[in-house]
Amino acid sequence: VYLSMSDESILVVDIGSSSVKAGHSGEDIPSYVFPATIAKGTNQSSESVEAFPSELAQLVTSQYVNNHSSHPIYRGIVQDWDEMENLWKHVADTVGLSQKNTDGTDNWNTAESTSVFMVESNKASVQDRSKWAEILFETYHAPSICFGNSSVLSLFASGRTSGLAVECGAGSTSTVPIFEGLPLHHAVICMDHGGQDISYNLKKLFNDRNIAIDMFSAKTVKERLSFAQGFTSKDLPHTTDTTTSFSLPDGQDVTVDSRIFSACAESLFVKDENGNGGLVNQVYESIALCDESVRRDLAGAIILSGGTSMLAGTGDRLHRDLIRKIQTEQMNVSCLVVPTTQYREKGYSTQRKFAPWIGGSLMGSFDTYHKSLKITRQEWEENPDMVLATKSV
Ligand SMILES: Nc1ncnc2c1ncn2[C@@H]1O[C@H](COP(=O)(O)OP(=O)(O)OP(=O)(O)O)[C@@H](O)[C@H]1O
Ligand SMILES: [Mg+2]
């Protein structure tokens, strides 16, 4: 296929459960990355705290919104559109988007109006698109908008159009088989388990050892020290055979059992006692749900993306366990996980935490995008329901 490039730059935005990734199409990585958390009722960014996972269903509301800050997206779904609009205002201020002022005047002359490409989670609905269209066209006067599925874009960022996109975010983990650019919807599996659960597991493991630690510290320590059991490539600082000594973000020096840094992440791979997590089986199931004729292509390109895939040893652990599972179940395929220590891809391997955004940035640079994928204001005004339901990446 011959793809020509476009000069027109668009704003690409990926708002997740944990962080916002934003920047202009054609760039290699997002220029702006900040917490998807705002001080309640304001458009001020707040510190990078992860949402509490819903241990008790009835507490879910108070857990994703605490007294000071809120996470407008919880487990990949927008929970509160007022808070989301506040967060969007913060995004717009940060990147310099134009908008209508509350007194009806606008700053369109001083700031350029920009087309927007929204990266969508696997759980987003057409109602969510309607809401975004309203915000972006009416308040922000975008000339055009577009929606792209984050897993399809992740695969695209790795230079492929077929494969199994495994996206490990903060609020959820999804496995999406994609064949020649099209997701095989019946075999998509989304699990409400991700980085925030690993942070929470680590917090509990610290608490069990009488060390008080909040979600912010748990997240920070996790990103630095945790790893997939059996596969550490991380040089733990001041590690003896059994213990690790380090400083918490608040300055407190602690020494703990080193095993907690792999124990906290175990639920990512294998279901925990509450039935949460279990990526190995999830990947296997997604492949097994597809027709035999495509299983080889899917198992041969299992592409990891998302922040949680940065956990040291994730690819190696998934690869090892998956081979065992495939043998046990006697599925006749061989599997390739990207990246693992056996198979790395320059660029993609290190930047996979931004893969959905990078896929959007690439997509937005092609002429095809401007000719046939984006939704113009006029199309939206003429037939909003049809255009929002049918036009997307
Ligand atoms: N080195 C690391 N080791 C382990 N976890 C990490 C590492 N780096 C980032 N993370 C985790 O990745 C998560 C953020 O990933 P990502 O930005 O893909 O999520 P998101 O897009 O905000 O959420 P979602 O897509 O689930 O709504 C956080 O939980 C963060 O702690
Ligand atoms: Mg995400």
Automatic annotation (TrEMBL):
Catalytic activity: ATP + H2O = ADP + phosphate + H(+)
Pfam families for the chain: Actin
Sequence similarity: Belongs to the actin family.
Name used for this protein in its record: Actin-related protein 4
